[in-house]
Amino acid sequence: MKLARPPKRAAPETIVALIDVVFFLLVFFLLVGRMDATAPFDVTPPIAFEGTDMPGGGATLAVSADGQLALDGTERTRDGVIEMLGERLAADPGLRIRINAHAGAALNTVLPLAAEIEGMGAQDVVLVVTPGAP
């Protein structure tokens, strides 16, 4: 008696290899992709200069950690600083103004002050920074 052998079936394809590839692609794109929001327009951040001397002249506004202000070494109130800078800018519109703020000074003190100085017509406002220890 002859019995027919059942035909050989092809080995079922495993999907494990495909899952591995998809997982690796997912990890790759998570590592390479940017996850932050981008602006709808071109934004070029400012460039900090290090190692060169700042040109002389102009006015220096110092801001302490607790918000006290001094203009060219003389302690003044905020209104006094704004008034004095307004007079100096009226006489010299190209006046360079350096803002030397303490590292502990609050941004809500320094930034509105810089914006107000720029609003008065100052063309050259420089924030003085010191590089950290390597």
TrEMBL record:
Membrane topology (UniProt): Single-pass membrane protein; Single-pass type II membrane protein
Q: Where in the cell is it found?
A: Cell membrane
Q: Which biological process annotations from GO are given for this protein?
A: protein transport
Instruction: Could you list this entry's UniProt keywords, alphabetically sorted.
Output: Cell membrane, Membrane, Protein transport, Transmembrane, Transmembrane helix, Transport
The record's Pfam families line, in alphabetical order, gives: ExbD
Recorded GO molecular functions are: transmembrane transporter activity
The principal location of this protein is: membrane
Is Cell membrane found in the keyword set? yes
* Any one GO cellular component localisation term in the record: plasma membrane
- Give TM segment ranges: 15-32
Similarity annotation: Belongs to the ExbD/TolR family.
Q: Which PANTHER family match?
A: BIOPOLYMER TRANSPORT PROTEIN EXBD-RELATED, EXBD MEMBRANE COMPONENT OF PMF-DRIVEN MACROMOLECULE IMPORT SYSTEM
Report what the protein is called: Biopolymer transporter ExbD
